[in-house]
Amino acid sequence: LQLMRLVLRAGHGLPEHSVPGAVTIHCLEGEAAVTTPSRRCDLHAGHLVMLAGSEPHAVHALEDTSLLVTVLLHTHPSEGHT
């Protein structure tokens, strides 16, 4: 897993992009819009959205916002699991 705290000022965001692993975006405070080619999800404090790996998405802060972003990183079969 990769965990990131993303803090955005109102009106700022991330342009459309994608990552190889599944993603969760958990709004810790504020309000943000997460958009994909097929939907828009408005997140308020306490709300969470999950996106499939490689799903294009953009994030736009509607007010000063703090997000916890989790990305599921893929492991190589030779690394094993414990």
Structure, described:
With 82 residues, the protein is an all-beta fold. It has no helices and 8 strands. The protein has strands spanning 2-8, 13-17, 23-29, 31-35, 40-44, 48-51, 57-61, 65-71. The strands form 2 sheets. The chain has a 4-stranded antiparallel sheet, with no helix packed on it. A 4-stranded antiparallel sheet has the order 2-7-4-5, with no helix packed on it. A hairpin with a 4-residue loop joins strand 4 (31-35) and strand 5 (40-44). The chain is globular. It starts with a strand and ends in an 11-residue tail after the last strand.
Characteristic key phrases:
82 residues, mainly beta, four-stranded antiparallel sheet, 8 strands, 0% helix, 55% strand, globular
Layout: helices, strands, pairs:
Layout: E1 2-8, E2 13-17, E3 23-29, E4 31-35, E5 40-44, E6 48-51, E7 57-61, E8 65-71
Antiparallel strand pairs: 1-8, 2-7, 3-6, 3-8, 4-5, 4-7
Instruction: Average the pLDDT over all residues and give the rounded result.
Output: 92
Amino- and carboxy-terminal Cα gap = 14 Å
Arrangement of strands in the largest sheet:
1-8-3-6
Radius of gyration: 13 Å
Q: Largest sheet, described in full?
A: 4 strands, antiparallel
Q: Estimate percent helicity.
A: under 10%
Computed structural class: mainly beta
Number of helices: 0
Number of strands: 8
- Strand share of the residues? over 45%
Low-pLDDT segments: none
**Shape designation:** globular
Sketch the topology as an H/E string, one letter per element.
Answer: EEEEEEEE
